[in-house]
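for the writeup, i need someone to sanity check this before i put it in the appendix. the sequnce is what the collaborator sent (i think, or maybe the updated version? ugh). structure was predicted straight from it, no edits. if anything looks off just tell me and ill rerun, i have time this weekend
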Amino acid sequence: MSSDTGLNTSQTLLDRVGSDDHEAWTLFVRLYGPVIYSWCRNAGLQGSDVEDVGQEIFHLVSKKLSAFEAGRKSSGAFRSWLWGISRLQILDHLRQRARQPVGQGGTEHNLCLHRLEQTDGEPESIHGVTPQQVLLKSAIDMLKSEFDSRTWQVFWEMAVKGRPAKDVGEEHEMTAKAVRQAKFRVTKKLRELLSDDLPELVNMQMAQP
């Protein structure tokens, strides 16, 4: 993988975003956009509302990112911080809709608002997919083109499907050591991108992109 891809450690990426680095901001949106939009949809937003509220969340993040404590190392710390900002912005949107004339929101809208007001915890899963899995898929989509097809395939077979290095190597005319090295290279890049919140890769139930 080339050294100029901009895929650095998560804290470095956040530092660059905070410094108005356009390339870093683009990477950040690609990485966290899917999970932010999934939160919006899970709260009952649809269509253009998802896009509008998502953009407002990104705007707030750009203004408030410096408030995130760089020293927080617990797993998922940044995602939890991001959820807090997202929840408040979604609530603000739902409350504005609730104040509009009858017909603009409706019973389902009010139920969504009440549900979100009653809990401040991040959804554990959305339609059976966890936020960690959404982030992992985003990272995988970003990284896949950075490796040759054989390296990516043996990584997927071993790390995601949980197959033994020896079996994967025999299929791809590689030694078991070479397979493990390929897995290490890809996993290392994933950990650099998602060092704050990378779930275990082995045996994850994900469809190959």
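Residues 1-8, 200-209 have pLDDT under 50 and may be disordered. The radius of gyration is 20 Å.
thx in advance!!
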